[in-house]
Amino acid sequence: MTFPYNTSMRLFSGPLARRVLSTAAATVLLFSTAACGNNIPLNMEPEAELLSVIGTDTRHLTGQFAGAGSSAQKAAVEAWIAGYNTYQPDVDIAYDPSGSGAGVNSFLQGATLWAGSDKALTQDQKDLSREVCMDEEAIDLPVYISPLAVIYNLPGLNDEHLTMSADVIADIFDGTITTWNDERIADLNPALADRLPDTRITPVWRSDKSGTTNSFQQFLSQAAPENWKSAPQETWPNAIGQGAKGTSGVVTALSQAVGTIGYADAAQSSDLGTVAVAQLDDAGQSVGVAPDSGKAANLAAEAIQRLDEGEDMTLDIDYSTRDEQVYPIVQISYSIVCPSYSDDTENWFVGSWLTFQASKQGQQLAASTAGSAPLPSEVSEHITKIGSTMMGATS
Asked: What burial letters (b/e) apply to 313-328, b meaning 16+ CB within 10 Å?
């Protein structure tokens, strides 16, 4: 998967960005990871090489450290924990995939050291973060980029990629299109039209406050503005269909009921069908771009480094692209942290944790486990600099 970046800061533009990101599929290493703790990836290098990821400080850490948030990040975070524990085996890292909204709330209440979120903090949330960040604003650091899949359960068609346009997807989720053999779906899938059942469509959406929900609505709002009138937000705007908590809840609900459709991180789509989003080729013909195809996640994005906010970095996506080389639903997920912590051990842990997430090894772990795309080198270098500063402050 590739992500060409462009920015007014020239941060990710040109051949370097394309070269860095086009290696996403080719550079993935195969690791065996488990859900938590001291399970060591089989192909991970010895401690000496891993320490080079973090720097020269060989501090031995012990203790328990907690984060919470994005359920889309769950598989990647589990892999990161296993990788980090190969050189800090006495560190106990807990991550609660409670959803972006819940994770941010936990962080703002001082219950966790960091939050995983599929949405950057609002200014109001940054203001609140001063209470737990020694009167500094918390920062957003992008650590995970992944295609967001529209998934469905239609036995006999789950091994296919049903093609849908953005306006069709929008009309399904607002209740305008109600059956799977609707003419608009059939017209986009002529080879499968006879197999489309008259089964009622049941949309499944996140019932919790979710950055994934916000990302999906950003796509609907930008790519189908005449069909999707609701302003993008972290909560679902209607009661059509049924809600489910967390990414795992959405996938479970779809797996248990025929005719359902929902949205989830592509890596967690299980054995469900995935929608190929209709784009136009050079001849003006509709083509379907699936989240697991060779063209998946080749999304043109504008990445903005907001220097007036110091270390903070947010990336903005153009979901309205019509490029046939592009899968247009992509999610950027952040680690939200304080710039520094009052406790020296916590400061060093967060700095080294961020550095490992953004490192080549960390990004390869996430790619092989969760199907994500490695970060652009400029983003990794920015995060590594922040991590090093946090560790250096305690050395």
From this structure: bbbebbbebebbbbbb
- 116 beta partners: 69, 335
User: Domains of the chain (ranges plus CATH)?
Assistant: 5-146+298-392 (3.40.190.10), 148-289 (3.40.190.10)
Q: What is the pLDDT of residue 277?
A: 94
CA distance 77 to 84: 10
Q: How far is CA 243 from the centre of its chain?
A: 20
Encode pLDDT of 105-133 as tens digits.
999 999 999 999 999 999 999 999 999 99
Q: How many CB atoms lie within 10 A of CB 338?
A: 23
What is the pTM assigned to this prediction? 0.76
Query: What's the whole-number mean pLDDT along residues 162-188?
Result: 97
Beta strand pairing status for 63-69 and 91-96?
A: parallel
- The C-alpha atoms of residue 307 and residue 9 are separated, in whole angstroms, by 10
Written in H, E and C, the secondary structure of the chain is CCCCEECCCCCCCHHHHHHHHCCCCCCCCCCCCCCCCCCCCCCCCCHHHHHHHHCCCCCCCCEEEEEEECCCCHHHHHHHHHHHCCCCCCEEEEEECCCHHHHHHHHHCCCCCEEEECCCCCHHHHHHHCCCCCCCCCEEEEEEEEEEEEEECCCCCCCCCCEECHHHHHHHHCCCCCECCCHHHHHHCCCCHHHCCCCECEEEEECCCCHHHHHHHHHHHHHCCCCCCCCCCCCCCCCCCEEECHHHHHHHHHHHCCCEEEEEEHHHCCCCEECEEEEECCCCCEEEECCCCCCCCCCCEEEECCHHHCCCCEEEECCCCCECCCCCCEEEEEEEECCCCCCHHHHHHHHHHHHHHHCHHHHHHHHHHHCCECCCHHHHHHHHHHHHHHHHCCC
Burial class (CB within 10 angstroms; exposed 0-12, middle 13-18, buried 19+) of 89: middle
Query: What are the tens digits of pLDDT across the range 273-311?
Result: 999 999 877 787 888 888 853 344 445 344 444 433 568
Tokens 């609907």 correspond to: 220
Structure tokens at 269: 């789509």
Q: Which residues contact 352 (CB under 8 A, 6 or more apart)?
A: 54, 61, 84, 88, 387, 391
The answer to whether 37 and 333 are in contact (CB under 8 A) is no
